[in-house]
Amino acid sequence: MKKTPASPGASILTEPTQYVSAHEEHNLRQAVERSMENYFRELGHDDFITNLYEVVMSEVEAPLLKAVLRHHGDNQSRASTMLGLSRGTLRKKMKQYGLL
């Protein structure tokens, strides 16, 4: 279950007993925005890319999976719970990114 913060400083429920502060979520959002601004600056006028969504998701998803797995000592069940994915979906994504 996940709920959206009602006010600054509120928390987001990510697991029954684990919270991520709105401040931490805001920092992650800002980091993504800065990264995209840098990407566009480096891209310049060569904006012929047509699959940006796919590129960004693959660039973000693989390190996310690695970090969560490392955080949980490669325990796929615990990692899948934290990610909100089934263990089967996690394994499929791990294969997709060469993490298995």
Description:
By secondary structure, the protein is mainly alpha-helical. It has 2 domains: 1-46, no CATH class; 49-100, Orthogonal Bundle (Arc Repressor Mutant, subunit A). Helix content is 60%, strand content 9%. The chain has a two-stranded antiparallel sheet with strand order 1-2. Helix 3 (76-83) packs across helix 4 (87-96). It is flat and about 45 Å long. The two termini are 28 Å apart.
Strand content: 5-15%
Strand order of the largest sheet: 1-2
Shape: flat
CATH C-level label of the largest domain: Mainly Alpha
Work out the helix count. 4
Outline the secondary-structure elements.
Elements: E1 11-15, E2 18-21, H1 22-43, H2 52-71, H3 76-83, H4 87-96
Antiparallel strand pairs: 1-2
Notable features of this structure?
single chain; 100 residues; disordered N terminus; mainly alpha; flat; 9% strand; Arc Repressor Mutant, subunit A; two-stranded antiparallel sheet
